[in-house]
Specification:
The structure is a single chain. By secondary structure, the chain is an alpha+beta fold. Helix content is about 55%, strand content about 20%. The protein has 14 helices and twelve strands. The chain has helices at about 1-10, 15-55, 80-90, 125, 155-160, 195-200, 205-210, 230-240, 250-255, 255-295, 295-305, 310-345, 370-400, 400-405; strands at about 60, 95-110, 110-120, 135-140, 150-155, 165-175, 180-190, 200-205, 220-225, 245-250, 345-350, 365. The strands form two sheets. Strands 1, 2, 3, 4, 5, 6, 7, 8, 9 and 10 form a ten-stranded mixed sheet that branches. The protein has a two-stranded antiparallel sheet with strand order 11-12. Strand 6 (about 165-175) and strand 7 (about 180-190) form a beta hairpin. Helix 2 runs antiparallel to helix 13. It is elongated and about 100 Å long.
């Protein structure tokens, strides 16, 4: 085995230019696959990550019994929200945990009544969770001591034909199902490019929500923002262990439509990935077949020296594997470097941000997400393709009679 390996290694370097060209060709192909995965991950994080934060965060914690009445957004106070926040923020993947009061209600003016979700927020923390505070198109965002002021979406402002400084009536229910009504001044209008959210969600300060709904010192939800999508299970397990007795759910169950859309997109992109891999395989096969058939005369010489066909096949198979490993190494380094550079500087996507409702959530640049496991997977795939690509022409060449191969031009 070691003898064949040494001969194969020596043969690989006998034609340095050809070896380099084949390895670089394979490496560039693999680098494109790594970059493709990185960009898909970047788009996923930019669009779905922001959508998840806008629609309620990666993880939500509620009091027991909330899920049975989730459609009504009941005001069920949490027993010890401070302990929940401390437990959440002690996890390394958690960006921030914030207290909220979330319930349903109405806003009315001369244009009519509009059903909304009222969200009372910790204003100093919400900027690290939702993109709302960064997308105030008119007026300003909430401050911790704000009273009867409200931040609404551009979609609702358009429907109600109101501007900053106008006053509207907001109606909601207390914990005892008593109707509370208050006239609020529009202090800010946010525009995230998603009309369905803008028209249905308004924000007030947590202190104002506690006063309005009779929940002094209490909250009904802890929303948790994570560094990346997919880290939810570990944090949920840690919370269930350290602070049991609460309902802990992730966006997967609280926003099933988004999960379904994401799964559909992943399926479609996987099909494109298979096509790309198939094209890459054909390219690698072509490169190695040309390299082997160019050496038909050389194969005839080693056959004339006494090597059996299976030994010739094995020798060329080893060469194909070695070149494949070189290509995989070049592709891994090149793909990782390109992803790393784009991960720092980003890929400007601002001119395409308004193409669809989802792409409107992209803040301006896409930052590719490097997944080491996928890099290793592509490297392994390239090595396998190289071995299979070398096998067929090596078998065909080894079957030729030495005399015939020696006369091959």
């Amino acid at each position: 085995m070691s003898l064949y390996l040494r001969i194969a290694w020596r043969n690989v370097w006998r034609h340095r230019r050809r070896t380099f060209l084949i390895a670089i060709g394979m490496g560039v192909t693999m680098a494109m696959l790594v970059l493709y995965d990185g960009l898909i991950g970047g788009f996923e994080q930019a669009i779905y990550g922001n959508a998840i934060q806008l629609l309620g965060g990666n993880i939500q914690v509620h009091a027991p019994g909330y899920s049975e009445k989730a459609g009504r957004k009941p005001l069920l106070p949490l027993d010890d929200p401070e302990a929940l926040v401390r437990a959440a923020e002690s996890q390394p993947n958690v960006v921030v945990a914030s207290k909220r009061i979330v319930t349903g209600g109405l806003v009315t003016n001369r244009e009519g009544a509009f059903a909304i979700t009222i969200v009372g927020v910790e204003t100093d923390k919400e900027g690290r969770i939702t993109p709302v505070s960064e997308n105030i198109s008119s007026g300003r965002y909430l401050l911790p001591d704000d009273g009867d002021v409200i931040v609404i979406g551009q979609g609702l402002a358009t429907a109600m034909e109101i501007e900053v400084g106008d006053r509207i009536t907001m109606v909601g229910n207390t914990t005892h199902e008593q109707t509370r009504q208050r006239t609020m001044t529009v202090i800010g209008i946010y525009d995230v490019g998603v009309p369905s959210v803008e028209k249905g969600t308004i924000y007030i300060s947590l202190a104002e929500a506690q006063s309005l709904f009779g929940l002094e010192g209490q909250v009904t939800e802890i929303v948790i923002s994570l560094k990346q999508i997919g880290q939810e299970p570990g944090v949920m397990d840690a919370l269930n262990t350290s602070v049991p007795g609460y309902e802990v759910e992730s966006w997967v169950t609280s926003i099933p439509d988004l999960k379904k859309t994401m799964d559909m997109k992943t399926g479609v992109m996987s099909v494109f990935g298979v096509f790309m891999l198939g094209i890459a395989a054909i390219g690698i096969l072509n490169l190695l077949m040309m390299a082997v058939f160019e050496r038909t005369r050389e194969i005839g010489i080693v056959g004339a020296l006494g090597l059996k066909p299976r030994e010739i096949t094995f020798l060329f198979l080893l060469e194909g594997i070695l070149i494949g490993l070189m290509g995989a190494a070049i592709g891994a380094i090149l793909g990782t470097a390109i992803n790393g550079i784009l991960g720092i500087y980003g890929l400007d996507y601002s001119q395409f941000a308004n193409l669809t409702e989802y792409t409107a959530l992209i803040s301006g640049s896409i930052y590719p997400q490097l997944v080491p496991l996928k890099v290793l997977k592509h490297a392994f795939t390239v090595a396998i393709i190289a071995a299979l690509a070398a096998l067929y022409p090596a078998i065909e060449a080894s079957r030729r009679e030495p005399a015939e191969a020696l006369h091959y031009v």
